[in-house]
Amino acid sequence: MSLQKILVPIAAMIVFGLLWELLVWANGWPNYVMASPSDLPPAYAKYWNLFLVMGWQTLWRTVVGLVVAIIFGVLVGMVMGFSRVMRDALYPLLVGFNAVPKATVVPIVALLFVGAHDFNTVLIAFMISFFPIAVSVSIGLSTLEPEYRDILRSLGASQTTIFWKIALPKTLPEFFGALKVAVTLAFIGTNLMEIVSPHGRGLGALFDSGKTNSDYPLMFAVLIALALMGILLYYVVVALEKVFAGWAERTPG
Prior knowledge:
Structural class: mainly alpha
Radius of gyration: 22 Å
CATH superfamily of the largest domain: MetI-like
Number of domains: 2
Largest sheet: none
CATH class of the largest domain: Mainly Alpha
Strand content: under 5%
Low-confidence stretches: none
Mean pLDDT: 85
CATH architecture of the largest domain: Orthogonal Bundle
């Protein structure tokens, strides 16, 4: 089963690459219109050092923003999950904030914190990825059966004990489901700041450089690199989910 889970995604990516190559070939598109997978290896070979340096810059800032989003999202979700008043008060604010396009927030953040490139990028990654985490934790805690709380309270359990023994394990499946979404959103936030407010760092800056120089194979190579980094972080989350919430996985009989 584990071998299947490795081979099937790899086969799917190979098929995607072949279809992409076939589409470019069938339409006769030159690489300045649509780069094909066969155009990417030369771009990686030519700029491999930039991919390593700027890829690391994008990755660590995305991970830091995601970690901050997890901490903040869990705390907000706990407040909303245990208090109906706070849930009614905060939920509209969170929805309204999440509805604002983050591309419009990037220039504001860049002006507020001029020169703080790393902080700005981490902040946008956090802002765009904490919402699903907060909502999932809130829903998981708010739907906790009151009978469990009543029984544990009658046995003398504190609110902290109820949270660690019942509420937290029940919330983990929803939490990891939201974390899988937040991973991709964090990358979007990072690259928004790197592209909209360029400061010469990260894969977003490398993409912008390819656009300025009309180097379309480089631009597509950056996009594929970002996709692979997103896939890598996604499977890190999947591995953590199996460790901490593997009991919730349903296997077909």
